Amino acid sequence: MSTNTPSYPPSVPTERELTDFGVQRVQHENIFSDTWHAQHYVEQRVFDIRHARPPEKPLVLFREKHVSWLMRHLQYLPRGSESFDVLQGWSCFWIVHSLNLLGATIPVPTASMVVKHLATFKDPVVGGYGGGPGQSSHLASSFSVIMTLCGLGTEEALMSIDSVSLLRFILQMKQADGSFRVSFGGETDVRAMYCAICIASIVGLLKGVEAEKITRGCASYVKSLQGFDGGLGGEPGAESHGGNSFCGLATLVILDELDAVDTGALLDWAVMRQMAYEGGFQGRTNKLVDSCYSFWVGSLFPLLGLKARAPAGMSKLFDADALQRYVLECAQLENGGFRDKPGTSRDLMHSCYALSGLSIAQHFGEAKHDAKNEVKKVDPVFNIAEDKINYVKEFFSQT
Ligand SMILES: [Zn+2]
Which residues form the Prenyltransferase alpha-alpha toroid domain (predicted)? Predict the structure, then answer.
């Protein structure tokens, strides 16, 4: 077998490829559980993809393909979404944020159409926004609408945000133990808290007279989420999870209360989530790699770095090259969009968070890349392109 003259497509793996695979893949230790089989299957698919790509072929971000796929969805969504779809605001956010990271310009008439459509999600009675026109208000829906409007960043979009109505809804969701309910009769968890604190912060509510009512008990609630392994669960006693760890930690960063949790233990937990062979992150212990955790777990490193006032200070504690490689090689599709992992289909959610994670790898890690593959720098607290969030903060500081 020659390792010097790779042919395309290669007929047999190189010795180097086989050695890397043998060392890094999961060991079965003679226990062939369902989870071992699932992990083995994913690793084999990743290996096949890597083996089929000649080593000299550079990784490429298929920017134009992603932009045209996302733009098609943006044109179609406001008219085409079913009225009962509760993710209409989320779909808008995933598309707009992805386009921003890719450096695409959303035409003003299209942005205006989205703003007008999102305005129909407002609940005039309790405040906030529902998941679609006529739906009940929900903190996650309100978050997705506000973040879409911030991502669009036009004056029309930002002027359409009614902070008084938003405050009314957020205060109705606040619970005695400091947590937030997602909706009337809904569950309380750290996602609801992050959504509330994030949008309250952006529109300036944490500087107002009601700030104490919003933030009371938040830090101690997040502290109660930290598990024995250092990660944060969604509610007290729940299993540590990448998305919930992000929500809890980002909340503490906004409130300047990072010391409420054991950040060293959380960092240990985050470090262990990067998959040895695939290079992407898993969201929980003993689970499969998934591109959306490229952001949820990847962002924990710059957020933890903020404690030392150095967001890039944790860059050596995750392998940014490996993360970038997983996103571009295994999650990206050549005809546009990103998927969770090889063998699954592309979707808007994974496209958004894979690109956000790519930005973390490039701007807060040490991922080597050339200008053609670079995406915009993301703000790891708010998950909006940095230039957009800076403009939005400036806008609301003057209103
Ligand atoms: Zn996922």
Answer: 61-384
Q: How far is the CA of 234 from the centre of ligand 1 (A)?
A: 16
Residue matched to tokens 């043998």: 22
Instruction: Report the phi/psi class of residue 356: left, alpha or beta, with left for phi > 0 and alpha for psi in -120 to 50.
Output: alpha
Q: What's the gap in Å between 14 CA and the centre of ligand 1?
A: 31
Query: Lowest-confidence range among 61-75, 138-152, 309-323?
Result: 309-323
d(CA 178, CA 222): 9
pLDDT at 30: 79
Q: Could you give the CA distance from residue 337 to residue 346 in angstroms, rounded to a whole number?
A: 6
Round the average pLDDT of the chain to a whole number and report it. 91
Separation of CA 293 and ligand 1 centre (Å): 6
Q: Express each pLDDT in 44-63 by its tens digit.
A: 999 999 988 887 889 999 99
SS3 of residue 89 by DSSP: helix
Write the DSSP string, 154-200.
-HHHHHT--HHHHHHHHHHHB-TTS-BBSSTT--B-HHHHHHHHHHH
* Residue 184 CA, ligand 1 centroid: distance in Å: 27
Question: Where is 385: in which H helix or E strand?
Answer: strand 384-385
142 contacts 195 by C-beta, under 8 angstroms: yes
Tens of pLDDT, residue by residue over 150-188, are 999 999 999 999 999 999 999 999 999 999 999 999 999
* Cα separation of the two ends of the chain: 69
What value does the mean pLDDT take over residues 209-220? 95
* Rounded distance between C-alpha atoms, residue 129 and residue 144, angstroms: 9
If you count them, how many residues does the chain have?
A: 399
Q: Which residues are catalytic?
A: 241, 284, 287, 290, 292-293, 340, 347, 350
pTM confidence score: 0.93
Helix, strand, or coil here: 263? helix
Contact 213, 171 (CB under 8 A): yes
How many whole angstroms from 201 Cα to the centroid of ligand 1?
27
